[in-house]
Structures are given as structure tokens and as C-alpha cells.
Write a structure and sequence with these properties.
By secondary structure, this protein is mostly helical. It has one domain (37-131): Cytochrome Bc1 Complex, Chain D, domain 2 (Orthogonal Bundle). Helix content is 72%, strand content 0%. It starts with a helix and ends with a helix. Bound molecules: heme C. Heme C binds at residues 61, 65-66, 68-70, 74-78, 89, 93, 97-98, 101-102, 106-110, 112-115, 118, 123, 126-127. InterPro entries: Cyt_c-like_dom, Cyt_c-like_dom_sf, Cyt_CIE.
């Protein structure tokens, strides 16, 4: 009887410990992913490329936040540097109209392309990069 209750206490303690250890690991992973993806690499590249006080270049923002859909045209997203995809939109709304839609979301296009830490100007730079040379 005594041994049994001791065992159940140990079982509960182990469970609690395991759950806590898992939570800490997830937190640690999130912390590790965040600076690498969004600040350190992207920010450093952008500063090197543009030198404009820390704003990321359009290319860096595109590769971090837009390529997943705009690279292959997922869900009908206009593709990188594809005039046939972009020109009709530019004719209809001009760059400012596209910019507003990118900030606010537009059909399957999520607001800011889900880039929560992108400034308005960084979103604009990413659009300018996507339509460059069309
Ligand atoms: C989850 C997929 C997805 C991501 C990520 C995404 N887009 Fe889009 N985007 C779309 C889709 C789909 C459309 C086409 C919407 C339509 O015309 O119905 C679109 C359209 C646009 C348009 C055209 C809007 C217009 O008025 O015609 C712009 C500009 C744009 N995206 C910018 C961006 C930028 C900048 C990023 C990255 C910061 C980004 N998108 C990330 C899916 C995405």
C-alpha cells in the first residue's frame, strides 16, 4: 500500500515534469526561430543592400514573406516579375492601389502577406521588387 501511493506520487511528478519540459522546449524553439527569420539575417542583409536606416529591401522582404505564394502563383497570386500577371492590376489600380490592397488584404491575399513586422514601406518595396522590369 505504501509503495503503491509512493509510486503514484512519482508518476504524477514525472508527468508534470515532462509537460513542463515540453513547454520549455517549444518556447525555446520559438525564441530561436524568431530572431533568425525576421530580424538578424533579413535585417542585416537589408542594411548591407540598401543602407537606408534598417528598412529591409524589397527583395529581402519578398524572400521572407511573399515568395511562398508569389513565387509559383499559389491561389492565383501574381507571380514575381510576370508582366502578364501584374500589368492588368497596375492598369486598374496603380501602384498605390496595389499597395493598399497588400496592406489591407485582398481576396486570398492576406493582410501584409502575413508579415506582421513589415512596415508599410517594406511592403511597398516588396511590391516594387515583384513588378521590377515588367
Ligand atoms: C498566402 C499567400 C500569399 C502571401 C504569403 C502573399 N500574397 Fe500577395 N497575393 C496572394 C493572392 C492569392 C493574390 C491575388 C488576390 C486576387 O487577385 O484575388 C495576391 C495579390 C497581391 C497583390 C495584388 C493586389 C491587387 O490589388 O491586385 C499584391 C500587391 C501583393 N499580393 C503583395 C504581396 C506582398 C508584398 C507579400 C509579402 C509581404 C504578399 N503579397 C504575400 C497571396 C499571397
Amino acid at each position: 500500500m505504501k509503495l503503491r501511493s509512493w509510486l503514484s506520487v512519482m508518476a504524477v511528478a514525472l508527468t508534470v515534469f515532462t509537460v513542463q519540459a515540453q513547454e520549455m522546449t517549444e518556447e525555446a524553439i520559438k525564441e530561436r526561430i524568431k530572431p533568425v527569420g525576421s530580424v538578424n539575417i533579413a535585417g542585416a542583409e537589408a542594411q548591407a543592400a540598401s543602407g537606408n536606416g534598417g528598412a529591409r529591401s524589397g527583395e529581402v522582404v519578398y524572400n521572407a514573406a511573399c515568395v511562398a505564394c508569389h513565387g509559383a502563383g499559389v491561389l492565383g497570386a501574381p507571380k514575381l516579375h510576370a508582366a502578364a500577371d501584374w500589368q492588368p492590376r497596375l492598369d486598374a489600380r496603380s501602384l498605390d492601389g496595389l499597395w493598399q490592397n497588400a496592406l489591407n488584404g485582398f481576396n486570398a491575399m492576406p493582410p501584409r502577406g502575413t508579415c506582421g513586422n513589415c512596415s508599410d514601406d517594406e511592403i511597398k518595396a516588396a511590391i516594387e521588387y515583384m513588378i521590377e522590369g515588367i
